Design the sequence.
């Protein structure tokens, strides 16, 4: 009998092109997603060395990071405009399919990959973006790379990769009512810190993970990188198959059924051994709110910021609280906010918007709060409008925008002003992430929606 | 990429853990399409105030560290975004070596691709050197052939580990794509096998 394997090992082993003494494995890349920010220098590298782009057919481009979410055609900053135009020119020159700013398939790269069925179980997927881990929700081995590696994939469709260790994050039990996939991943990172996954690929397992929808699984895998792991994935099951059935880039009919069987066989074998396992009880998790300047600095909504007397690194705590304008032992529910951002590759899919809309329906955004909703893709926007969600948001006082990364990283005009405080459904609360001097609190869409109405954090479970 | 075998330089202590790439190079500078010229934006929001004036308290702005080429940092340096602009900005500013207890995976990888050398050493030794660089002057010699770091003034030499292929790449300044294209037949064979 062959040795039982994890899905990570199965996908890895299938993609090894070449091995040699003293080098890591050379692995094949099935899908290369690119965007405007991390690709121009890679294309330029190809050009300087007169190299070909090996597999334009396995490469797919969109523009998401710096695109405006209103006045679509107008990128005011000439440098940013040049970056977008450069992507257009590069895609044309090298024959890469591009969903540009006016294309119906445009959106955040990690939202459109699954939507278009480009993301499939068992694929190796890379992108010059750390949140590529999102695609792991489908049982793909997906990770972020730098621009030099983007160039390497362009030229060779491969990467030299050291075989990572495997980490099983097992989530047992059920999430409570009002507790979301976002709360789950934030709670895990708070408990085990932002470098718990460094050097590992995470597989999320357990009943609570099985019970998640595909969109919720994407939220969890998306933030694997915030736990330090380049990739995080979930073994495919019937939900994975049903999500992909009928999507644009997925085969139809018998061919699909054959593929679906292969996908289901990828799941981790019983008795497969991981390098490390952590077990979490889903029932203990509350809605989460980060209070600090990395995603591991978070607390349950009923909790408070830490006490100096209880921390190992007082300087780091002081620095974080000072930046955030908070006190030690300050109750989370006492924190007042003035901005709300619902969007990003973590939480901008249709179900995220539906859940937020349900909270705010018939209510009004607090007078002191500026609130925006940025759908993850053009397609999400259209579907949401068909369901009337845009009206619910607008009537409550939210702005309803076009698709893009937007205020998650503020590369376009969507920024939080200095000293502003934002309840954000995004993935990073680093200093200055949403704007110089801006303060970010990471939360679920439901928590963000409730905060928009109340002007401070409240527990959605009793809202 | 320039080959690097041995380097001696002044060390600057950045005594913080989890320094993320958003701090190393803030997003407003990522719209440029070049690989060069990012040094002026390194640690921008820490180095400069809202009016673009230098913040005198920030360590890199202290005159004593003006010509530093070795950065000593806390755990998990380079976490967050995959932006290769982070090593580009560190290199362009003048850093050649970064020493820390450990690095975030993508940053570690990106650094090697550009000839910026990240070296992981024991946390206690990092803390000693952070202290020495803060209180006095610390010059370190990194020898990649020997895999050692020497504190000349204090006559202290320590060894470090680094994946061998990465060490060879750095010491020889190899073009990794050219190396890979040497096994192009294997890539074609793989492609044919999965068709």
Sequence:
């Amino acid at each position: 009998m062959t040795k039982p394997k994890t899905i990570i090992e199965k996908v890895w082993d299938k993609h090894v092109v070449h091995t040699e003494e003293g080098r890591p494995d050379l692995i094949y890349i099935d899908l290369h997603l690119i965007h405007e920010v991390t690709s121009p220098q890679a294309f330029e590298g190809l050009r300087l060395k007169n190299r070909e782009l090996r597999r334009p057919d396995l490469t797919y481009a969109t523009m998401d990071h710096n695109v405006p979410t209103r006045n679509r055609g107008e990128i005011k900053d000439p440098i940013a405009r040049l970056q977008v135009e450069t992507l257009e020119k590069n895609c044309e020159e090298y024959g890469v399919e591009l969903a540009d700013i006016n294309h119906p398939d445009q959106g955040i790269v990690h939202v459109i990959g699954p939507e278009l069925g480009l993301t499939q179980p068992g694929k190796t997927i890379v992108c010059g973006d750390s949140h590529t881990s999102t695609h792991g929700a489908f049982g793909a081995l997906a990770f972020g790379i730098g621009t030099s590696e983007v160039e390497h994939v362009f030229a060779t469709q491969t990467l030299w990769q050291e075989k990572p260790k495997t980490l099983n994050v097992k989530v047992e039990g059920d999430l409570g009512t009002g507790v979301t996939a976002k709360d789950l991943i934030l709670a895990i990172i708070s408990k085990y810190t932002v470098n718990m996954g460094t050097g590992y690929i995470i597989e999320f397992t357990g009943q609570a993970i099985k019970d998640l929808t595909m969109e919720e699984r994407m939220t969890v895998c998306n933030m694997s990188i915030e736990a330090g792991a380049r990739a995080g994935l979930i073994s495919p099951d019937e939900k994975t198959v049903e999500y992909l059935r009928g999507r644009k880039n997925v085969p139809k009919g018998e061919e699909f059924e054959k593929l679906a069987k292969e996908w289901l066989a990828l799941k981790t074998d019983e008795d497969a051994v991981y390098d490390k396992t952590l077990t979490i009880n889903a029932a203990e998790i509350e809605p989460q709110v980060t209070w600090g300047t990395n995603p591991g600095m978070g607390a349950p909504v009923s909790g408070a910021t830490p006490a100096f007397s209880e921390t190992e690194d007082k300087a780091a705590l002081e620095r974080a609280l000072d930046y955030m304008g908070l006190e030690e032992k300050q109750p989370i529910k006492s924190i007042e906010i003035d901005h709300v951002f619902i969007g990003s590759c973590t939480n901008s899919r249709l179900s995220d918007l539906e859940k937020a809309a349900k909270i705010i329906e018939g209510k009004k955004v607090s007078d002191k709060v500026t609130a925006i909703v940025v759908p993850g893709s053009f397609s999400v926007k259209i579907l949401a409008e068909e369901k009337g969600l845009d009206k619910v948001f607008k009537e409550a006082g939210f702005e309803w925008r076009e698709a893009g990364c937007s205020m998650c990283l503020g590369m376009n005009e969507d920024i939080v002003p200095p000293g502003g405080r934002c309840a954000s459904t995004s993935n990073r609360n680093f200093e200055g992430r949403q704007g110089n001097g801006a303060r970010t609190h990471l939360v679920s869409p439901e928590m963000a929606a409730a905060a928009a109405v109340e002007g401070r954090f409240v527990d959605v479970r009793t809202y | 990429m320039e080959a690097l075998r041995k380097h001696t330089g002044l060390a600057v202590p950045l005594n913080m853990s989890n320094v993320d790439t958003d701090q190393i190079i803030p997003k407003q500078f990522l719209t440029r399409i070049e690989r060069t010229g990012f040094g002026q934006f390194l640690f921008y929001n820490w180095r400069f105030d809202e009016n673009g004036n230098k913040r005198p308290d920030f360590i890199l702005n202290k005159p004593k560290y003006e010509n530093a080429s070795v950065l000593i940092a806390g755990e998990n340096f380079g976490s967050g975004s995959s932006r290769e602009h982070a090593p580009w900005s560190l290199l362009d500013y003048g850093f050649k070596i970064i020493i820390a207890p450990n690095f975030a995976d993508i940053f570690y990888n990106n650094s090697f691709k550009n000839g910026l050398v990240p070296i992981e050493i024991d946390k206690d030794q990092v803390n000693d050197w952070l202290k020495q660089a803060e209180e006095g002057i610390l010059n370190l010699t990194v020898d990649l052939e020997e895999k050692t770091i020497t504190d000349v003034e204090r006559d202290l030499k320590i060894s470090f580990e680094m994946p061998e292929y990465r060490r060879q790449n750095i010491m020889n300044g190899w073009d990794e794509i050219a190396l890979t294209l040497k096994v192009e037949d294997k890539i074609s064979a793989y492609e044919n096998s999965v068709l």
